[in-house]
Write a structure and sequence with these properties.
Layout: H1 2-26, E1 51-53, H2 70-74, E2 80-84, H3 92-103, E3 117-123, H4 132-136, E4 142-144, E5 159-161, H5 162-185
Antiparallel strand pairs: 1-4, 2-3, 3-5
């Protein structure tokens, strides 16, 4: 009796597996034959490419990053290197004010370091796309890109300076916005 029950359950498992296989075997292909066909990145919203920095709302060329280094600590692959900005050297007036404060017995205030990073380097060769850095960021300054057509011929092609990349992308968007408004403001032209 146990043997018969076991054979029926195995046959049932086989039938379920064949049904799933048959469903996908008979469904339409989702293969894209590149380069004759391309995929719009907006159609693949779940794709997780390399990470990128997010800019401020009012100044997209400046990152939201506050150089807390939590992303560096959370990364199990060690593919992120962030360098904090150093405090600027005090001017002559500030040095004089600091000396006067010392003479009065007060604690002098040195110029504070800016919160944004001096450099933000990312090595996509080492990244496992785990998302730990994205989750660890307290100010949501990191996200996954949707760049599905990233290609290169050497490992150096996959080492990114994300700070320079953010500034370049911001500048490109600004130039497109300016050229778009200039063309649309001309009579008889539509963009």
């Amino acid at each position: 009796m146990k043997m018969l029950f076991r054979k029926i359950s195995q046959l049932w498992g086989l039938m379920v597996g064949l049904a799933i296989t048959g469903k996908y075997f008979l469904s339409k292909d989702v293969t894209v034959y590149y380069p004759r066909q391309t995929v719009d990145p907006k159609d693949i919203l779940t794709y997780r490419g390399h990470i990128e920095l997010i800019g401020l709302d009012d100044d997209p060329g400046t990152p939201r990053c506050i150089s807390c280094l939590l992303c560096v600590q959370a990364c199990p692959s060690g593919c992120i290197a962030v360098t904090k900005s150093k405090a600027p050297k005090p001017t002559e007036e500030e040095l004089q004010a600091m000396e006067e404060a010392k003479q009065r017995g007060e604690k002098p205030k040195a110029p504070a370091a800016p919160k944004y990073p001096a450099s933000w380097l990312y090595d996509y060769n080492l990244c496992s796309l785990c998302g730990m850095c994205v989750e660890a960021c307290p100010v949501d300054s990191i996200r996954f890109s949707h760049n599905i057509y990233l290609a290169g011929t050497s490992p150096d092609d996959f080492r990114f300076n994300l700070l320079a990349r953010l500034k370049r992308k911001s500048k490109e968007k600004g130039e497109r916005a300016v050229s778009g408004t200039a063309a649309s403001s001309l009579p008889g032209r539509t963009v």
